[in-house]
Amino acid sequence: MIEVCNISKSYGKLEVLHDISFTLHKGEVAAFLGPNGAGKSTTMNIIAGVISATKGQVLINGEDIQENPQKIKQNIGYLPEYNPLYEDMYVREYLEYAARIYLPKSEIKQRVDKMIQTVNIESEYRKKIHSLSNGNKQRVGLAQALIHDPHILILDELSNGLDPNQHAKMMELIIDLGKSKIVLYSSHRFDDVSEIASHYLILNKGSLVFDGKADDVPSVKDLFYTYCK
Ligand SMILES: Nc1ncnc2c1ncn2[C@@H]1O[C@H](COP(=O)(O)OP(=O)(O)OP(=O)(O)O)[C@@H](O)[C@H]1O
C-alpha cells in the first residue's frame, strides 16, 4: 500500500505541491493526470524517495520512506520522465548493470533474459542504447524499473515516443503488471490511460482535484478536460 499523507513541496518560497493525500492498494493501476507543471513528476519523485517533501510523509506498507530508504526502495521500480539511460551501453549490458544493484550474480542472467522477453526487446538487446528508437528506449527503461520485481511501479510519461501499435502493446503489459502490483502512471492525455486505469488522480497547480475510481469515468473525463484544455 502507498499512503501519501498531506505532502507539500516548496522550492524556495514557491510551493509547488499543496497538502496532497491519497492511498493506493495492490492490484490498482492509478492514472496520474494533470497539465504541464501540475506537479506530477514532483509527487512521483517524492514517492520514489528521490526527493523529500517539505511537509507530510509517504508510507510504503506502513513505513516512512525517509526513515528507511534503502529497504523501502527495494519495493519500488521507477521510470522517470527523462529516462536516464546510459546511451553508450549495450541494452543487455545496461540491464545487467541495473540488476547487479539488487540481485546476486547467480540470478542476473535469468532475470535479464526474462525482462528482455517481458518488454519485448528480443530483437534489440544486442544494440547500443543510443541506436534505439524512442519507443524501444522506453521499453529498456521499463525493464530497468522492473528488474528487481518491485511491488510498486512508478511510470512517469511512459508513453512518450510510442507509436499507436507500441502503445497498445505497452498498455496490455501495464494491465498485466497491475494485477499483482501498484502501478502509478502519469500522463497528460486521458486517452493514454483510459484503457488501463482502475483509479484516477487529477492534479492541477499542485493540488489534487480528483481522487476516484474508474466507475466515475464520465466525471473524470469532464474534470480532466476542464483542467487540461
Ligand atoms: N528543481 C526545481 N526547482 C524549482 N522548481 C521546480 C523544480 N522542479 C520542479 N519545479 C516546479 O514545480 C512545478 C511542478 O513541476 P513538475 O515537473 O512536477 O510538473 P509536471 O506535472 O510533472 O509537469 P510536466 O507534465 O510538464 O512534466 C513546476 O512549476 C516546476 O517548474
From TrEMBL:
Q: Name one GO molecular function term.
A: ATP binding
UniProt lists the family membership as follows: Belongs to the ABC transporter superfamily.
Q: Where is the ABC transporter domain?
A: 2-226
InterPro entries recorded: AAA+_ATPase, ABC_transporter-like_ATP-bd, P-loop_NTPase
Protein known as: ABC-2 type transport system ATP-binding protein
Its ancestry begins with: Bacteria, Pseudomonadati, Bacteroidota, Bacteroidia, Bacteroidales
UniProt keywords (A-Z) are: ATP-binding, Nucleotide-binding, Transport
Natural source organism: Dysgonomonas alginatilytica
* Pfam families according to UniProt: ABC_tran
